[in-house]
Amino acid sequence: MTALAVHPHGAELAAWARARLRQALGGPPAERPQGLWAETRGATFVTLRWPDGRLQGCIGTLVAHTSIVADAAHNAIAAGLRDPRALPLREDDVDALDLELSILSEPEPIPFRTEAEALAALRPDVDGVILRWRDTSATFLPVMWHELPDRRVFVGELKQKGGLPYDFWDDEVRLERYTVDRHVDARAATAVA
């Protein structure tokens, strides 16, 4: 798998996501991006952080099932208002948030026979990872490698995110990888600061 190419409309898509969150909080109607690209299917994650780095929310889609603009809008609103970690927001809070939009490549399976082989196959700072076991799944975006640079710790924390013990392993564990094209819309936060 090669890294995902830079989306030529990524910055516009990130600004649209912020505008849709603002609209959901009673702000002015957001102007939907136009063009064929806007109607292509895409999977996105939207991460919202306060200027001090606290997470407001991070919600996304792993597999494209709708247009990329609809997906980005849905995930921005969900990250701002529906993530269980989210604080209550007002419209005037929206410009204080840093918004990061990640456009995901299609996930692909990582072949391995043992946990050691699985860990060796991971590419720190490149791979977003999905862990699946029976009805359980969890993912970390590639940016999480900055916080969890050790492969074993990365996967252990991913297991815990999915509700499994840190040291859990089973022959039914499956891993998939994806890459992301990240676009940060922090201009509003910078203007306020």
CATH fold-level label of the largest domain: Glycoprotein, Type 4 Pilin
Q: C-alpha Rg, in Å?
A: 17 Å
Taken together, the total number of domains comes to: 2
Which band does the percent of strand residues land in? Answer: 15-25%
Q: What low-confidence regions span 5 or more consecutive residues with pLDDT below 50?
A: 188-193
Largest sheet: 4 strands, antiparallel
Would you write up a description of this structure?
This protein is globular. It has helices at 10-24, 36-39, 68-81, 115-121, 151-161, 187-192, and strands spanning 43-49, 55-60, 98-104, 108-109, 128-133, 136-140, 174-178, 180-185. Strands 2-1-3-8 form a 4-stranded antiparallel sheet. A hairpin with a 2-residue loop joins strand 5 (128-133) and strand 6 (136-140). Helix 1 (10-24) crosses helix 3. The N and C termini lie far apart (39 Å). By secondary structure, the protein is of the alpha+beta class. The chain folds into 2 domains: 10-105 and 180-192, Glycoprotein, Type 4 Pilin (2-Layer Sandwich); 108-178, Hypothetical protein ph0010, domain 2 (Dna Ligase, domain 1, 2-Layer Sandwich).
